Amino acid sequence: MNISKQEIIQKFEELISNDLTHEDIVAWALEKQKAEDIGILNYIPLSEKDIIWNAVVYLACVDLKVNSYEYLHSIENFLEEKEKLKI
Fold first, then answer.
1. What span, in angstroms and rounded, lies between the C-alpha atoms of 79 and 47?
2. Does the model's pTM come out above 0.85?
3. Could you tell me if 73 and 62 are in contact, meaning their C-beta atoms sit under 8 angstroms apart?
4. pLDDT tens readout for residues 46-84
């Protein structure tokens, strides 16, 4: 299974623009984490592996809520993380 920096950028954009739900993003990220756990995740480019992996870990938690109707992370948080990761 492949994962690319471009795919990470796309997932952040889909999250920020509400094209995908928080839960959809988490499901995608968990699929990538499972692939990594069994050693079948290929990073494209490999030189960006740390950035890509850190983004996957972050995206796997974007559905956390502070109460039944409010997410812990805001759009501003997503933009900040995207900038922090330099993507």
1. 23
2. yes
3. yes
4. 999 999 999 999 999 999 999 999 999 999 999 999 999
8 A C-beta contact, residue 52 and residue 60: no
Note whether 8 and 60 are within 8 A (CB). Answer: no
Instruction: Output the six-digit token pair for 33.
Output: 């984490």
Q: Three-state SS string across the chain, please?
A: CEEEHHHHHHHHHHHHCCCCCHHHHHHHHHHHHHHHHCCCCEEECHHHHHHHHHHHHHHCCCCCECCCCCECCCHHHHHHHHHHCCC
The residue behind tokens 């759009």 is 75
Q: What is the CA radius of gyration of the chain?
A: 13
